[in-house]
Design brief:
By secondary structure, this protein is of the alpha/beta class. Helices cover about 35% and strands about 20% of the residues. The structure holds S-adenosyl-L-homocysteine.
Length: about 350
């Protein structure tokens, strides 16, 4: 039976150095290969031109470079670009480039499908097929950076983990990808320009704080009433608001970085005064801001965006309590690239 070649990008720099030492070569060869793989982003061993032909053939015999391919690219009227990204095993995820006047943001996926079951999200219907590897997340960012330079004449400025999947259910790989994105040998981006969005997995939020991460945290709250949250995000039965609150207090205690709560206001679900009161109360536990997201319909009509007047009530109540609030308009709706619409329709 043919032995399977190893994915070379699963090796750390030290492991690459050790590989060369074990072959009687100089350790710095490992650094050279690492640089080719990450900061130079090459796809074949052939391209590693500072290695001898023989050495390249050795690598080729033992390893593969599993790179992604941007399979199809859709452009929205508002400048948003959606990539369907084909992985080495044929599965597909989506990532999105979102340009505004002052920044270009990459919205990247962390899983194929999703581990969680939010009723309002198209990705949840795909179920989770597998976690993405660090290099598969990194490659999405590289692809979007290229597109940003090509279509908007500027490099990527921000990254949000708000594509397909629950990043905290793929903790190790997501953090490894962020390491690569922020290292000088990778993309050298500041962690302050990265936001990880989670549905709220308390244990892992505490772990983020313990691991002293330097990026921002956003939590998809959508309701501060346990019963309501369970209805729309059934996993919340196991990850209760009390536990979430405790983990966020822990996060703030350790990082001193405020949280962003993402929140959609739906007709008949969370559009009453007691919903607003509960959110205001929840916002008092930890320094935060609220991002009111416009709902992007996903076909079956169970969920409908509440009237503007309801959203205004939320804004007034939050402002009255000195809680910063912003309203996020949808981008790329015409190509199903907006929040919660990523479902490999193609
Ligand atoms: N699993 C992570 C990240 C992916 S979802 C999380 O839940 O945070 C990114 C954001 O889009 C979340 O805030 C999510 O609640 C929101 N979202 C999901 N479906 C949506 C929809 N149909 N319309 C608007 N926002 C949606």
């Amino acid at each position: 039976m043919k032995t399977q070649k190893k994915d070379i990008r699963a090796l750390s720099k030290q492991e690459l150095r050790d590989f060369f030492i074990s072959r009687g070569e100089k350790a710095f060869r490992g650094n050279q290969v690492y640089e080719w793989l990450w900061s130079k982003g090459i796809h074949t061993f052939e391209d590693m031109t500072n290695l001898s032909k023989e050495m390249r053939a050795h690598l080729e015999a033992e390893f593969v470079i599993n790179h992604i391919e941007v399979d199809s690219l859709q452009k929205s009227q508002d400048g948003t670009v959606k990539n369907a990204v084909k992985l080495h095993d044929g599965l597909v995820v989506e990532s999105v480039l979102i340009p505004t006047k002052s920044r270009t943001t990459a919205c990247v996926s962390s899983q194929v499908g999703c581990s969680l079951d939010c009723k309002f999200c198209a990705t949840a219907r795909l179920k989770r097929m597998r976690n993405l590897n660090p290099d598969e997340i990194y490659d999405q960012v590289v692809a979007i950076d290229r597109e940003s330079r090509l279509y908007h004449d500027r490099p990527l400025s921000n990254i949000v983990f708000m594509g397909m999947g629950e990043p905290l259910m793929n903790y190790k790989n997501v953090l490894a990808s962020i390491d690569k994105i922020t290292q000088d040998e990778g993309l050298g981006m500041s962690p302050k320009r990265i936001t990880l969005s989670t549905s709220g997995v308390p244990k892992m939020i505490k772990k983020l704080a313990d691991d002293e991460v330097k990026f921002h945290l956003a939590v998809s709250l959508h309701s501060a009433i346990q019963e309501t949250r369970e209805q729309i995000m059934p996993f919340a039965k196991n990850f209760t608001l009390d536990d979430l609150r405790e983990s966020l207090e822990y996060w703030y205690e350790k990082t001193k970085r405020r949280i962003t709560y993402e929140y959609v206001v739906w007709k008949g679900i969370n559009d009453q005064q007691h919903d607003i009161d509960a959110l205001v109360q929840f916002c008092k536990y930890v320094p935060c801001k609220v991002n009111l997201i416009e709902y992007n319909p996903i076909d079956d009509g169970d969920f409908q965006q509440a009237a503007d007047s309801c959203v205004d009530h939320y804004i007034k109540a939050l402002e009255h309590n000195r809680i910063p609030v912003t309203v996020r308009r949808s981008r790329g709706k015409d190509i199903d690239a907006a929040c919660g619409q990523l479902a490999n329709k193609q």
